[in-house]
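re: that complex we talked abt at group meeting.

here r the seqs, copy pasted straight from the sheet so there may be weird spacing, ignore it
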Amino acid sequence: MAISNKINRRPFVAALLAQRNGALVIPGLGSPTWDCSAAGDSPEYLYSWGGMGLAVPTALGVALAQPQRRVLALTGDGEMLMGIGSLGVVAAQGAKNLSILVLDNESFGETGRQTGLTADSTDLCAIARGFGIARTMHVTAQEKADELAEFLFKGEGPCFAVAKIALSEDPWCLPVKDGAAIARRFRIALGIEAA
Amino acid sequence: MSEELSWSDEVFREIKKREIGTVCTIPDGGLTRLLNLIKADKGMRLITLTTEEEGMGIVTGQWLGGKRAMIAMQSSGVGNCINALGLPSAMRAPCLMLVTMRGQYGEFNPWQVQMGQGARPALEAVGVKCFPADQPHEVAPAFIGAADLAFNGGFSCAVLVSQRVIGAKGFGQK
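got the structure back, here u go
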């Protein structure tokens, strides 16, 4: 149950993923990974249990390898800030099939909800534009899910969005932990490996 | 000097032979010739990073998408990579690194010594298999060994090119 006016993460992410139209999803560790799992398991979700700071670089590597597929990096504010320089690399590579969404609850969700920098003056969309990602979107309302899905999955990349997310108590929905299994079924889904 | 040039050409040939199409880097002086060869090759992609740890994500993503990539960096950059190496390890993704060493033989800059001396122990502490090359003619064979182990089995492998191969940076001093 949401305890503030901001977006309720589970239905919001579920609504977005329902419109992904085949986009590959690279969630960051913690809540974004649980949100994807809760929306309904898919081998096209590359769940993360570690490597904080690497969601965008990993998504970029996939996007450059698979130019005909849309790739969404779906991460949290802390994880994005840890890998903030990668936005510059994204802009320089100009990956047209790469979208990035930060689910920003202004806190370190997994370690006690300590307040993060985006609660104060850090503006991630301004940072993305400063790195050269021209297309950005800032969302604070649940009703904007469809507009955000259009922005992320239909517009030309690279594009970057922030959705301000409420702190909430959600049921645990843990996906598979085995990194080799996660990677292998992702590659099978892409037709790179045989099942 | 001519030997310093040729290890770069040999490694470049082995990169091309294995269809490693992308090289991620924070450049080092000792990598100059190799990076220039990569940049000049229209079939290859050179990605300049903001910090070396991004390379772990990019090369893992490339493998997930069916492509081969590697990282080229200085030994100081290894220090920035240690936690990030957990990603390719967890996924059993190949992670091939070419590292030019500082802080070894006749190093002018004392700030380089801790990570130069610590690079190999740090890599081995997190399970990376190290392939040192102390002479110019050893670099390409070490690269072949590291690359084939990495891509055949999904391992993290690092070629460590000794400062004896590169030569100590002079900083304009006599």
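couple things i noticed - Chain B has one domain: 2-166. Chain B has a mean pLDDT of 95.
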